[in-house]
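A protein record pairs a chain with a discrete description of its three-dimensional fold. The shape at a given residue is found from the number at the same position. Here is what such a record looks like in full:
>
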Amino acid sequence: MKKIFLMALMAFIAIGASAQKSSNKPVFTTVKENKITSVKDQNRSGTCWAYSTLSYFESEILKATGKTYDLCESFVANKTYMDRAVQKVRLHGDCQFSQGGSAYDVLYCMKNYGICPEDAMPFPGSLYGDSLNNFNEFFSIMEPYVDAIAKNKAAKISNQWKPGLQGILNAYLGECPESFTYNGKTYDPKSFMASLGINLDDYVTITSYTHHPFYTKFAVEVQDNWRNPLSWNLPMDDMMRIIDNAVNNGYTVAWGGDVSEDGFTRQGLAYAIDTKKAESLAGSDMARWLKLSRVERTNILDSLGCNVPEFTPTQEQRQERYDNWELTDDHGMLIYGIAKDQNGKEYYMVKNSWGETGAYKGVWYMTKAFIAANTMDFMVNVNAIPKDIRKKMEDVQKKQGLGD
């Protein structure tokens, strides 16, 4: 009888815990959802910047023309890695050569080299017998190659390293086509770009930090921002107003930021978790909380679900986290919608590039607090910016004689 009682008690506790977790699971109602193209999978490659930004331009084309395109990440990567290697050689190795990049790299490539559709180059991974991208072998060959040239002690180097590196790029990514046929018409990459129906001068990047004056431009100081493009530095509230205004007016946003926080889960959710309040609600004192593994802490936070407490991001907090390396440039994604949970809390709907993973098949629901706290920068169409903010930006440009 005692054994039966204990088993019943355990079952009751399990049911109660399950019910609590179920009741805390967010139930989303879509407020605004803009059209996007299909979810892609970058697999084992550090090319989120290419996937997220091309996805962004695919959405821009879809909005402008109603046409759906699948643009080629391998083309952008091939051109960008050569340019990045050239910079490292010019600087004698005093800069980084790596897989990462920024949204501006895609914009630069499209402006200067054009673009091609996905099927104009080999399918990712197919050249080396894989079903998707896997850059492990690729970069283990390419990084030391570039280092050997950039740090060479010769008084003069030849230009032959470029065709050698191009051979590696072509072997793993495919050769960028000089011409191709799409829907019965022949294009080169530049003429194809010109046919897509968008103006590449319409795009700006936005950030928010206090170590530069607001309503001025500066190059965000992160290693993957290696071309040093200038971003508009705006107050955090204005930065967030731009995202809201863009989404509510039918635009998407190419977002770059930090996804290494505890609040970003692999199941498709992201919260700006107030860990001090969370550990108290979870019934564990701070000493015990700190001893828990990240998996154990995640399980506790998952049990709290949409009731997990969040902190309110501030401008000062953003700057402090940036300066102490907490806020990092980890990942690129596409913001395309807004949703609410059963408590009325608003989330951005965000398209990822990890395939149809997680609870929402490749989509993440990220609270506005999480985005405000963890945004490094983002790219947006100037026409999506609220009129009063855009006027301030234009006034600054006129006063200083700056271009777009």
